[in-house]
Amino acid sequence: MASDPVQPPPRRIAHLDMDAFFASVELLSYPELRGLPVVVGGRHRWQPERLADGSWRFARLRDYAGRGVVTTSTYEARALGVFSAMGMMKAARLAPDAILLPARFEAYREYSRRFKAAVAGVAPHIEDRGIDEIYIDLSGHAQADTEVLARGIQEAVREATGLSCSIGVTPNKLLSKIASELRKPGGVTVLHMRDLPERIWPLPAAKVNGIGPKAAERLRALGIVTIGELAAAAPELLQEHFGRGYAAWLHAVAHGRDDRPVQTHSEPKSVSRETTFERDLHPRRDRDELSRLFTELCRQLAGDLRRKGCAARTIGIKLRFEDFRTVTRDLSLPHPVADARAIRDAAGQCLRRVELDRRLRLLGVRAAALHDASELGSDPSSMQLSLLEP
């Protein structure tokens, strides 16, 4: 008699999100700031100053002048209304006495590597979603108690980094991302499909990853504010206002349906570097400074490609002018490149296709159409070129 086929284990998908990641890394260096509103953003000029008695003098947010944006903030600063991507000048009005620290991305990348390695030691089926978050497929893990397993992952992260994280575990990625936000910081939330009406449906529809501000506003105009109200909405109403495809997706996510697997390996599609200037820079009068920044972006982009083991067939630039008009240009190359000289040369060709007739507020460089770096030969040394050379 044939035996019954072996049933796969029930899906247990975790979303791990580091708590106020950049700010928390900074507090490892400055533990005296714990419990205070701290904002990370701006440039090196806001570096703390070591005093003669060994203590630190910190800049305050009220001292900031420029057009930068908040990289992140501690939960104490968030309580004052300061969140990531907010303009620094607006943040200074909301929390003038908050401590201001410059961002240190090399340190954040190192702690990102550490926490991911720690998780992999406990549960290796990981999808990397960025510097501070991952998905983990726990479905086949030997530890049957999901909360015990999640707490073990948290402890491994804390031992490796000194940092806390929040974890949501549900049957799919959609719900796990929502669940990881429910008990921040340092929380574990385990949900099943039966918990949907009580735990998920009362939440705002904008909590669903993929429902942005514009879509949320259109839903509000239809009287749909919560995920539960979205789940109860007539499919015909959603189709009328959002189209067949997006309406079907809205209906599915409101009912907690998501079959996406955890992708343990993915090829990067593009890599980019950009910077927003403290003041608008003139293409002619600030030529030397723009040239230096442009070359440094190309060097940084080359370093990113090297770390990823990639080379690019397409190099592009991004310019944002003082009136917020944004221009992009791309150049496809006959062979993939990864060294700073070749990137700078291709980006310079893109730049010459733009009329530089007004001040600039942002400059960026992008590498796309990525290939394995083994297609390349040796890596030439970097160089210094003029921004607007013929």
Give the SSE layout.
Layout: E1 13-18, H1 21-29, E2 38-41, E3 49-50, E4 56-57, E5 59-60, E6 70-73, H2 75-78, H3 88-94, E7 99-101, H4 105-122, E8 126-128, E9 133-137, H5 146-161, E10 165-170, H6 173-179, E11 188-190, H7 196-200, H8 213-221, H9 227-232, H10 235-242, H11 244-254, E12 270-281, H12 287-308, E13 310-321, E14 326-337, H13 340-351, E15 360-372
Helix pairs in contact: 4-5, 10-11, 12-13
**Gyration radius, in Å:** 24 Å
Query: Which H/E pattern describes the elements?
Result: EHEEEEEHHEHEEHEHEHHHHHEHEEHE
Mean pLDDT: 89
The helix content, as a percent range, equals 25-40%
**Percent of residues in β-strands:** 15-25%
Give the total of beta strands: 15
Principal-axis shape equals globular
Which class best fits the helix and strand makeup? alpha+beta
Distance between the termini: 81 Å
Q: Quick one: biggest sheet?
A: 5 strands, mixed
Across the major sheet, the strand order is 8-9-1-10-11
Task: Describe this protein's structure.
The protein is α+β, with helices and mostly antiparallel strands and 390 residues long. The protein is built from 13 helices and 15 strands. The strands form four sheets. Strands 8-9-1-10-11 form a five-stranded mixed β-sheet. A four-stranded mixed β-sheet has the order 5-7-2-6. α6 links the parallel β10 and β11 (188-190). Mean pLDDT is 89; it is low at 375-390.
